[in-house]
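[[Local backbone shapes]]
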Amino acid sequence: MDSDKKPKLIHLVIALESVVLLAFLLMLTPIGSRLTMSGNMKSAENGETGKSENNGQDDGDPTGQNGSGQPQEDSEDGQTDGGSSGQENISDTADGQQKPAGKDYIKWVDFDIPAEALKKAFRCDIDTYLKDIHLNWIEILAYLGSYYGGDFSRYKEADLTAVTARLQAGEKMTDIAADMEYYPYYLEAYTAVLGGMVGEYQVEIPGSQAPDFALPKDEKGNPVPTDENVWVTKYGLKAFSPIAKNYPYTDYDDFGDSREYGFHRVHLAHDLMGQAGTPVIAVESGRVEAMGWNRYGGWRLGIRSLDGRRYYYYAHLRKNYPYHKSLKEGSIVQAGDVIGYLGRTGYSNTENTNNIEEPHLHFGIQLIFDESQKDSDHEIWIDCYELIKFLSINRAETVKDESTKEYYRVYQMQDPAIPGGAAEQRIPEQANASS
């Protein structure tokens, strides 16, 4: 090599090394970190997350691996991943972390509100309906969530009583929570869980329980007692327990427990142990998004709430007759409808196989703040244990059609959240008589 070319080569190498060093130093700065995160977010949004080939109807390990470093597989929980990648994915995080670049929506929710707090806030809402000051139960719970930093193990009824007293004295929640940085986060998160559960609706009740204004009238306008069901308008809890009234079940808080079939993963749902054939109830009105066989969940149903925020997952349904015969993908169901029957199917590649030892309903709720979360490696599944305890105050009564062995709800409901209404779920003979 010519001696006059050596200095030029050395200068070129030094220049290249300087560029690499500067690039490395840039990535250590806040600007560089945001550029890196932005690139990762774009990859995730473009589907480059290694999600399973099951369109999100089956569940996987929340780390995206099965514990042995193998690619994620599908599972009984109804998702490709529980989204438990941690608080670093929160947008507007409650622990003060910086929002990631990309779309601005919530990436994580811990729902640990005890049933006692849910019931107390609910009663405050119901008792003040149509009064000058109507308390909103979700706003109350969001205030408490902010006050406790999301940790409801600190819950005291006195704290709830204190804030409701301030509201009834005329203060606005916007003023009370003005200095709470994460109140908007908790309000949106808890609305995503509870938003469709309380409101006005019409429902049938026995004539013996009907108030005078709901009874038929004689020619003079006087109420006439009747043994027939009558329709009344109510404001209250229009969501139901997933287990029908008068059917026993047992449960415990099993969210996060280990599951081993197929691959190691955590349980991102809630199991309710009961008798095979027990009618399973639609918790909330919605549209059937998925039904059919899953090797982990067996016969399962996925129902999306009408506001799109909640995906209800019901699995291990009964062998041979898992679903109510009226259902198909795309069907609209009303809260309180019979949608299927408890069983023990699953843990098999062969359809219609009972491989679950104890009959139970596997019930899960996925929250969806952006449609990209629905079937991805960042799904949000919440602990339903305390919520199920709360919903147990409203259990749908069912009746069996002896000619078909199918079950139907006893008291019909008209949920105004359903555009145009939904078909009533009556035994065919009763439906013909009512028409």
Summary: Residues 173 and 196 are 21 Å apart (CA to CA). The two ends are 100 Å apart (CA to CA). Residues 6-27 form the longest helix (22 residues).
